[in-house]
Write a structure and sequence with these properties.
- The structure is a homohexamer of 286-residue chains.
- Chain A has helices at 42-49, 82-98, 113-123, 152-160, 175-185, 196-203, 235-245, 268-285; strands spanning 22-27, 56-57, 62-63, 69-74, 102-107, 128-132, 165-170, 187-190, 208-213, 251-257.
- By secondary structure, the first copy, chain A, is an alpha/beta fold.
- The longest helix of chain A is centred in the C-terminal third of the chain and has 18 residues, at 268-285.
- Chains A, B, C, D, E, F: One of its GO terms (molecular function) is agmatinase activity.
- Chains A, B, C, D, E, F: InterPro entries: Agmatinase-rel, Ureohydrolase, Ureohydrolase_dom_sf, Ureohydrolase_Mn_BS.
- Chains A, B, C, D, E, F: Keywords: Hydrolase, Metal-binding.
Chain lengths: 286, 286, 286, 286, 286, 286
């Protein structure tokens, strides 16, 4: 008998880095959260609870165990130093992309999407972004700050330029954010996912990055998030979106953000995140 | 620098009483609750959690900050003295109406709707009532008492008379309550909101009072209530109802009741109430 | 005044055994649970919380108080001794059937369905089974064991043979389980209840046993279960299924399983189970 | 095999009423609670959780199974009708005493102690009362009411007269309450149980009634109560008090009150109440 | 009848600013928290829950209602901008001191003590500090940052110099922190409050600032804190410390920090903070 | 930059197996739990929450980072197959001992101590056992089973023989268990740790195995356990016991058991276990 150190990788994602084509990493940062913080604990909560899920997806007809994925865990982010932390995420993503692997990032608050998108856009200058969220996240500043969970998509816009961001499910924001989007800066679909099929048809041969703020789901389905916004999507709607994503021929990276595991001790919100991660990893492997 | 006393008014509802056209007040009473009490804490829970919501509603395209609303807080109700407490609510509402402001009341248990409706009916003798709820609340007595959360709509009927109350979403009650309604006393739609559009069309030029027992929502969406009744409405259904309410030309007052904040520590139920309050205040300001 | 011992039977199910035509019993066993155990506490949690529900069902237009039901409580099962415990359940069910009463069993983990089905099949050799669940439960072995919550429907198949089991709502399992079902062993509908009406039409004159794993519901509706599987059914879908079940002329027994009351302190999951029990008891009395 | 109706009596307290020398009953009333209500659910919570405790007490060297105790469950109290409810409790206690059994009452809020004490004082005019509590409960009125959880010991004083009530552990009240006690009306020991041994020596041959508000314990030990008051007693202190109570030769009845099971989902507060009930029942049997 | 805006000041602390001699303010900041954030919500949680406490303290024999205190609520702190936020706290405190009122500050994380101490030390250059805490907080840097909850007492030392800080109850820190203290920089008492009486005797005529990290209490007493450290003090020990503080003739300000209300839904931790605030406000008024 | 797989070893216990002198392993088994199961999740809960603790212990004046410890994680135990699972634990422990490392085991339910003790006793035939617990665990059978959490110390006695087991803090059990112990089979100290110093003096040069059921602590300190037993020890008492353990010259292995992380969402119980593990690992390294 010989023993190895504990391995708490996400369910069936136990490849070594060199062997993997998809790399999972989590970003324990919630420094700019304006309401209830705690998303920094999402990554490990998901790892521990992933033992409750099957490796086979009847939606994709694929199994996690058939595809090499490496889970490198929480990045080591300096507490409270927002820009330094974003830089660690940026450098990590850049290296993953350089090694010809696909990044699968887990937040943290939504601001952590920005450095991932920056690294992705350097490699794929023509990248487009699909954004599922309850919130616009299009402010130019929030409490005087350019870098915030509430400005993150605006900052992504600074990287990508107009017409490259497609937002769905949006049901909260300030009036000027909706107006700014409507001025042609982003495609913004209020309240639901209508138009997603058409968008995907249009982007099918482009490089696409997908970012999902899990609060796009109704708080009934996903109470474990800092800023619950009633009137959201059902999980079946998200599964339908994943089915549509199968038509994208070049998903170059993905993330989901804003699970706060302390807000839902029932574990149901963790289960939502765990299943979402399985489906997204499988989509990245197609 | 000069300091003022703490102001925990509901989000952006910080006008002085004299300047306001809508007045928010909460009624910390749950004395006749037959199952799990605690709704007395709803008002302040909503105030504190309202900081997590935007002042702008993309549903109404209106902002709370553009309309003068005063939040006068919890009324000072004598504990356990039901009739005295109801009288305080009645006198408060009467004064608000006399001052030509609209009452926006937050329960407490559902019985607190009765004195509000009484004051409203004195000012608007032709008032009609729209009632969204899981429960009939049509008993004539409950455990030997005339005044109870389970008899409140029957008592409102005593004030309004037949044909003036429209009930939707009802899925719990005793058999004789359904029969009594069906005998022409109230319009009662079981299980969902079908027929609401027609009702609103019919009442569009009448004075209308709206009372929402939040347990009309499914417990999945709104677990923070004393008597959860599975099989209810989604929050999107309620938002659709609010869209329909825009067609009412004379909403003279409104309330929602039965949030028990202790039953849902995730805060999701509070978020439902907070958003509902924003939408209802805006409807009253139209 | 004369006093009797405390009676905590399920709401309005207070007949003596000899007088009853339906018998409620709960099976406090969760020994083979692979994820979060605790379903052993479901029975008494339901009894205590049943005081929050009406005895009248507006769905069936029937009242519990009009039909004689006896609640015999938790069976006395040896802890950790799986086969002995299953035998107690089997013998109890056999006796209930011999006394010409209908069994209404409450789990516990899903494995407790097996001995009930065995006893039912002895009395009704032509019995068919309708199975609502998130999980296939069709493994032949699980961690080397033949008797497990993950193999229970396969074991029921060993009793009933091919073509007699109809599964709905299934969204989790290993690939080979779906393939084994598709090879003609069971009817398996993925993700929803489509086809249930046709199945019921086909089985309307057969003896039918109904087993419901409550995790067929979405975790948003029913978080109180050990292995939450997002993307499930709404409670209204389950109510619709109950309406369809009215067309079955010979329901010979029923159960529901997998409530873990400790995972949902809001009580909403208990309320789901309580209402489900009311509806199922009424269906058995038709 | 023959089946009986479910029996959820408190652990090993399953005698029939006629055979019992101690009678357990619970009073589901919290109508005058000024802070967080919910004590009405204490009785059944204790019954269900009592299965986690041994019947043998190493403190008393006695076993519940060796003494005949009957548990008659929750009394049927009219919701919200305080005086009627108190009367039901009074009549029940009177009958139990008339049948030469000892009453062991479980609250509910503290006001339910009053009718028990009244019935006890009728049978034992010389009865003295030992009162463990965080709160004085000596107000003459509370929010204009004579009958309240905050006036209950003052009302007991009205029955017993000066010098008959001994209060320990008191750490909260209004100034005038402490002064009123100090004027010779009651013996009041602030903050701890010092002097309890002397009191017991003094009362050893008197009829004594014991009432314990469990919030005398520190909220660290007993968080499941509506009005937590930090700085209280440890559970070992309460066990020491029970040891001292063994020196009382004529305990004529007892109660404990103010468990709110919903406020402590860990079950630790229920465990405190369960163990307390075991010890008190055994004391009554000595 | 005339209505005023909602007033949710802490229990009986409803004076206007100009009339008050003690000013309560809360600092909703937890940006440098290294473990579970959420202390930003402490202030309002305390306000709402203060209705459950008496205004009279039997420990001090004083009533809140007899002394003029103003509660100015949460300061308006920029989210995520640590230095800017500290500056707002500093300026606020300076003004309060200039107006000859005493500051009573509520955290937030412990770092918010620094700007208060700075303002206090400007007015009282000879100020000494008594520090009750589980943690040393003496690091010079934490994750590369000078300003952190883990460095706050070291930064206070930078202001006050050696021999002016007295730490009690410390049971967690890095080795070099204990050594640095022992080198004569601070007085540091490990594990308990021994020596506090002597310290107070020594400081009785000095200006003294008191800072209490509530995690000095055992997590059994106070689970609602981000970094629980078992083996702490009982609440009675803290009450004893307050009795000793009565011997200080010149308490010039005080704070307590690190309540995270979301981590203890029972409300017991809030009750600890509420009672602590009452006692500290009364001490400041002596 | 190069990436490694996620490492969620316990805080600072990241040595490879070959380099370590102490080996941590957790046993996810709760199959014979008679009340609330869930201890199977303790190991990973402790790993994730260990980031909240310092590596330095001011009690031992030692740091985890100075001693080589390997954490091999949860053993792979067959669900529900008690004897097979015990055998995996036995073989693992045997190998660790053969490799001249010390076993530090984390339960799971208490039965998992048996196979560890068996392996230890094979290597150290003269081993003695110190047992801290609320419960006797001395039954010969429990519900007809020889292998149970309630019989585990009796089974250890079968291995060790009379006079080799020292039990402290015991406050629950059946009468015959106390009598059997008192007949000279074990040393059993009821209620507290008195006599522990003398015991340690006696055993100081013997090989000693330490097993701690964390429910020896008061539920106020440690609510996260399945069978809470009020009246237990404070955490400071446990720390004092650890100080005494320093006088043992040959601790050959240790464990603690019965953390159920789901029962205490505040995380305070996890913190107790995390700190206990740090202290015990350091004791094993002395």
């Amino acid at each position: 008998m010989s023993f190895k150190k504990v391995d708490l990788s996400f369910q069936s994602c136990k490849s070594e880095y060199d062997d993997a084509s998809v790399v999972i990493y989590s970003c324990p940062m919630d420094a700019t959260t304006s309401y209830r913080p705690g998303t920094r604990f999402a990554g490990n909560a998901i790892r521990v609870d992933s033992f409750g899920i099957e490796w086979y997806s009847p939606y994709r007809d694929m199994s996690l165990k058939d595809y090499p994925t490496c889970d490198i865990g929480d990045l080591d982010l300096p507490i409270g130093a927002v820009e330094d932390a974003l830089n660690v995420i940026y450098e990590t993503t850049k290296q993953i992309l350089k090694d010809n692997k696909k990044p699968m990032m887990i937040g943290g608050e939504h601001l952590v999407t920005l450095p991932v998108l920056q690294a992705v856009a350097e490699k794929y200058p023509d990248v487009h972004m699909i954004h599922l969220d309850a919130h616009t996240d299009l402010r130019d500043e929030f409490f005087g700050r350019k870098l915030s969970h509430a400005t993150v998509i605006r900052r992504c816009f600074d990287v990508l330029g107009p017409g490259r961001i497609y937002q769905f499910g949006i049901r909260s924001g300030d009036k000027h954010e909706f107006e700014w989007a409507a001025a042609g800066n982003t495609f913004l679909r209020k309240f639901d996912f209508e138009g997603l099929a058409e968008t995907i048809q249009k982007l099918k041969d482009k490089p696409v990055y997908i970012t999902i703020d899990l609060d796009v789901l109704d708080p009934g389905v996903f109470p474990g998030t800092g800023t619950a916004e009633p009137g959201g999507m059902q999980y079946k709607d998200l599964l339908n979106a994943f089915d549509l994503f199968e038509n994208l021929n070049n998903i170059v990276g993905a993330d989901f953000v804003e699970l706060n595991p302390y807000l839902d001790p029932s574990g149901a919100s963790n289960a939502v995140a765990v299943k979402t991660l399985r489906e997204m990893v499988l989509l990245l492997h197609r």
